[in-house]
Every structure is written in structure tokens, then in C-alpha cells.
């Protein structure tokens, strides 16, 4: 996230001096070939694939960031890429994903960082391992290095040193289209380690806290969560919806955390980048024949950071318009 912020500040600074720089620097002209993507262009010429949202946002000729066409010309500067408008390109030629193995491998070498506090959906049937039943000296809240007590003991097969993650339930999540309950939204609070055990209870120390921990928080066995996630192309077509937001806000922007109805069963993987899209309704009054469908409007992009069986957690990395719960997400498999 810091990297995105730094890039944004850098871009603003460069933009402020762009007229002077443009007058002094002669760009390199590059012609787009099959397999090129904004991601690949940013990586190849600016050595930074995270710059691609700026390329997208500042080139009105690129409505959908997948659809840059063979034959389009781009001007390469030391600090930016500009895409020339051209009539030579044809949408039928547009690659929907990186075509070359070299470019796919290039994408997979890039990473995306998170802090581990994004949360997830605990799907129906998943049971907690235990609960925080009390805090040391009857405190109401606990943080890092504080002592708490749990209902996990020797009867559950626990041992001193066992580690657990601490969560709280936010509430049930229903699908915005089908209204089916997908599971419970949960928020990570921190981590703890058991120190002393009784038959059905234990003493533990909080080893990490994202938010304050209270009695009633539930526990799951510790799982190492990758904080640096390799970005990767989808290995199948993915289509789903933003079903909930971490904060509960309906209007979303860059860096907001969302939950999707796509999980391992649907082929979603941590590191997948999906576009946030909306259908455009044609106005039949001005059409000579019935128009069934228009190209989708691309309003943003997000990266999947963790997956359950039928749900996943993602972070919005780009938005050119307000993103909402219920917006559709999609990504085409690399061809």
C-alpha cells in the first residue's frame, strides 16, 4: 500500500513539471504488438508494473485496460507512457490477456504487499477452535503482550506454545444478487500463544494485535499468512461480485478491502488481478437495429489476497469511478 501511495505522490510531482519535461525530452516511439498489456509496458519501459493504473487513467483512448491493440503507438518518456489514438487498431485484434509465456512469467515475478489484517468470510460449516473467555485482571480490552484466558485445554489436545489467531464476527453476508447467505464476515484482531493449560482452559499471551481483543473473541489455529503475494494471471475465466466490504461502507475507493463470491472452487488464487466492471445499457431510441449488449465499463481493479473455498478477500488497487458493493469483477484466462 505504501508503494502505491509513493507512486501516486511521485506521479503528482512529475505531472506538475510535465510541460517543461515534455519540451526537453524526445520520447521513444513503440508500436504495440499482440500480447502487450499496460502491465507489461509499465514493467518493460518504466521498470515498475504498478505504474499501469496511471497509464490507464491518463490515456482516454484506453477504455478497458485489456484492450490496447496491435498497431497503436505509444510514446515512452523516462517518467511516463502516453498512448496515441489511432484508427488502425481493431477491437477484434485485442488480446484479452498476456499472450506470451515470457510476459506471464514477468507478471508472476511481481509481488503485492498486505499487512494481514484484511479479514475474510468464515463460510458455513466452519467452526472456531475456541474462545477468549476472560482477560487478565478483568480488563475489558487486551493488546500485544497482555494475558488472556481461553476455553482451549488439554482435553482438546492443546499444548503449551500452540498458536492461534483471534477474530471477531461482524455479521452474516448475503449475496447482493441471489440473497444467499455466504457466511460470516470476520475481522482479525491478532494472535496469541498458549502458555499454561488446564483440562478445559488455558492461559495465553497476546503476541500480536491489529485491534483490541475482548472476551468473546473466537480462535482459529494459526496459519502463516503470506504478506507478500506474487501477482499471477488467472488460469481460468473468473466472473463474480463484490459481496461485502470490510468497513461496511457502500462507496469504495483505492486501498479498500472487499470480499468476493469467488474462492478456490471457482479457480480464484491469491495474486489474481481482476477488473471491476459494469454493464452499459444501450439506448435503443438511437439504434437502427436492436442492440443486445455494449462493451462493459471498467471502473477499477483489485487484487485477491486470500481465498476460502467459495469466497475471497481482495484489495482495490485502482478506481476511476466510485466502486460499490454489488459491482461485478472479472478476468479472462491467459490465452
TrEMBL record:
CDD domains to which the protein is assigned, alphabetical: LysM (cd00118)
Region (Disordered): 87-106
Extent of the signal sequence: 1-21
Entry-linked InterPro entries: Bact_Kbp, LysM, LysM_dom_sf
Biased composition (Low complexity): 87-101
Domain spans labelled LysM: 28-76
Keywords attached to this entry: Signal
Name listed for the protein in its UniProt record: LysM peptidoglycan-binding domain-containing protein
Organism: Geomonas propionica
Taxonomic path: Bacteria, Pseudomonadati, Thermodesulfobacteriota, Desulfuromonadia, Geobacterales
Amino acid at each position: 500500500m505504501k508503494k502505491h501511495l509513493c507512486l501516486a505522490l511521485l506521479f503528482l510531482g512529475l505531472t506538475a513539471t510535465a510541460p517543461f519535461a515534455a519540451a526537453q525530452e524526445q520520447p521513444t516511439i513503440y508500436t504495440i504488438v499482440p500480447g502487450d498489456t499496460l502491465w507489461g509496458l509499465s514493467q518493460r519501459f518504466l521498470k515498475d508494473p504498478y505504474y499501469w493504473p496511471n497509464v490507464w487513467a491518463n490515456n482516454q483512448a484506453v477504455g478497458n485496460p485489456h484492450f490496447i491493440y496491435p498497431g497503436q503507438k505509444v510514446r515512452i518518456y523516462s517518467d511516463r507512457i502516453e498512448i496515441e489514438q489511432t484508427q488502425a487498431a481493431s477491437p477484434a485484434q485485442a488480446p484479452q490477456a498476456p499472450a506470451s509465456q515470457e510476459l506471464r512469467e514477468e507478471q508472476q515475478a511481481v509481488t503485492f504487499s498486505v499487512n494481514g489484517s484484511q479479514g475474510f468470510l468464515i463460510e458455513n460449516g466452519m467452526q472456531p477452535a475456541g474462545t477468549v473467555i476472560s482477560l487478565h485482571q478483568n480488563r475489558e480490552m487486551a493488546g500485544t503482550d497482555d494475558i488472556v484466558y481461553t476455553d482451549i485445554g488439554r482435553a482438546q489436545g492443546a499444548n503449551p506454545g500452540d498458536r492461534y489467531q483471534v477474530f471477531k464476527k461482524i455479521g452474516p453476508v448475503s449475496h447482493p444478487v441471489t440473497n444467499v447467505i455466504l457466511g460470516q464476515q470476520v475481522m482479525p484482531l491478532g494472535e496469541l500463544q498458549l502458555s499454561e493449560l488446564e483440562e478445559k482452559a488455558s492461559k495465553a499471551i497476546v503476541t500480536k494485535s491489529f485491534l483490541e481483543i475482548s472476551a468473546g473473541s473466537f480462535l482459529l489455529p494459526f496459519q502463516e499468512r503470506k504478506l507478500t503475494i506474487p501477482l499471477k494471471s488467472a488460469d481460468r475465466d473468473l466472473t463474480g461480485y463484490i459481496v461485502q466490504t470490510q468497513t461496511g461502507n457502500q462507496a469504495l475507493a483505492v486501498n479498500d478491502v472487499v470480499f468476493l463470491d469467488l474462492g478456490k472452487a471457482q479457480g480464484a488464487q491469491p495474486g489474481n488481478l481482476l477488473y471491476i466492471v459494469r454493464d452499459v445499457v444501450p439506448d435503443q431510441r438511437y439504434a437502427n437495429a436492436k442492440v443486445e449488449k455494449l462493451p462493459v465499463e471498467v471502473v477499477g481493479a483489485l487484487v485477491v489476497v486470500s481465498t476460502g473455498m467459495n469466497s475471497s478477500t481482495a484489495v482495490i488497487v485502482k478506481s476511476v469511478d466510485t466502486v460499490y458493493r454489488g459491482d461485478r469483477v472479472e478476468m479472462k484466462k491467459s490465452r
